[in-house]
């Protein structure tokens, strides 16, 4: 039955531009494609396959341009209206071109897995937990492989006002980097955030964000603490 088949296709273009000349070697453009095909094998269970393609090009010849591919399977189990379990498992491959003058290109591959639980026990509170393993492009390195744990809680304070509290923890390693001597680094990255959102009208949302990040590393001078405050205005025409 075609009504039991769910198809999803998405495309995104991203331009990353830093505001400091110290980090402009990370400026890049990326194309990202994601596709999913699922079959509802039971009224409460959907099983399917998924895949992604990404193309990243750097403005400067410090990090290596790359092509990324992933393929896997996923599930979506919803035993009730307010609870869901979504597992994912697959394989990721990054093909790095030798565009850098400093970092030797090395193709990377690894398995990925994620388990996300979401629950809304009351009308004014919901929470979710995500945990897994991933391989992603790095920010100051070619690639990052890590384990992660990301819980968050959403609160509906009053009508049109929401509060989101979140925590995150990652333990991983990254290879390559701005310095040729940085062949591999192991790190821990953790912190939390608060987001207060308000909808002054139906299609507009204004959010005030705060995030604290702490990072430790087995490489000297690579640890830091960071405080980020931001304002986001979102308009949804539909």
Give an overview of the whole structure.
The protein has about 240 residues and is an all-beta fold.
Topology:
Blueprint: E1 5-16, E2 28-42, E3 45-58, E4 66-80, E5 83-96, E6 108-122, E7 125-137, E8 143-158, E9 161-175, E10 184-201, E11 204-217, E12 224-235
Antiparallel strand pairs: 1-2, 2-3, 3-4, 4-5, 5-6, 6-7, 7-8, 8-9, 9-10, 10-11, 11-12
Quickly describe the structure.
With 238 residues, the protein is mainly beta. Helices cover 0% and strands 73% of the residues.
Count of alpha and pi helical runs: 0
Major pleated sheet: 12 strands, antiparallel
Order of SSEs, N→C? EEEEEEEEEEEE
Specify Rg, calculated over alpha carbons: 20 Å
Which tags fit this structure?
single chain, 238 residues, mainly beta, twelve-stranded antiparallel beta sheet
């Amino acid at each position: 039955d075609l009504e039991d088949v769910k198809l999803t296709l998405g495309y995104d273009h991203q331009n990353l531009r830093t505001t400091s000349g110290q980090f402009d070697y990370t400026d890049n453009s990326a194309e990202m494609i994601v596709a999913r095909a699922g079959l509802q094998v039971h009224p409460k269970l959907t099983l399917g396959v998924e895949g992604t393609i990404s193309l990243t090009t750097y403005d400067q010849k410090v990090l290596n341009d790359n092509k990324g591919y992933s393929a896997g399977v996923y599930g979506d189990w919803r035993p009730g209206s307010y609870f869901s379990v979504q597992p994912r498992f697959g394989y990721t491959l990054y093909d790095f071109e030798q565009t850098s003058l400093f970092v030797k290109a090395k193709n990377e591959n690894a398995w990925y897995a994620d388990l996300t639980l979401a629950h809304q026990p009351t009308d004014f509170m919901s929470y979710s937990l995500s945990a897994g393993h991933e391989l992603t492009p790095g920010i100051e390195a070619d690639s990052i492989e890590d384990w992660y744990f990301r819980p968050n809680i959403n609160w509906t304070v009053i009508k049109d006002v929401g509060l989101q509290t979140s925590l995150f923890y990652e333990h991983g390693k990254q290879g390559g980097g701005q310095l040729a001597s940085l062949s591999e680094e192991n790190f821990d990255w953790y912190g939390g955030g608060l987001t207060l959102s308000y909808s002054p009208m139906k299609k507009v949302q204004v959010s005030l964000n705060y995030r604290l990040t702490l990072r430790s590393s087995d490489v000297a001078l690579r640890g830091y603490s960071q405080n980020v405050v931001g304002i986001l205005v979102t308009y949804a025409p539909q």
